[in-house]
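Page 47, continued from p. 46.
Same chain as before, 67 aa.
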Amino acid sequence: MSFFPLPYYVHAHIWLQNYLRIIKFVTEKNNKKRKEIEMVVLNENINKPPIDQRLPEQLATATFSMG
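Result:
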C-alpha cells in the first residue's frame, strides 16, 4: 500500500512546477512592460515644467497663514 499515494505526489509536484513556471513568465512579462512604461513616463516628465518644490508642511503653513 505504500506505493499508492505516489501518483498524487508526482501529480502535485508537476502541477506546482507548471504553476510556478506560469507565475515566473507572467512576472517577467509584467516587469518588462512596467520598465517600458517607466521609460515613457520619464521621457514625458523631462519635457514638463518643474513642479512646485515646496514640502507639504510648507504648503500647509502657507495656506494657514493666509487665513
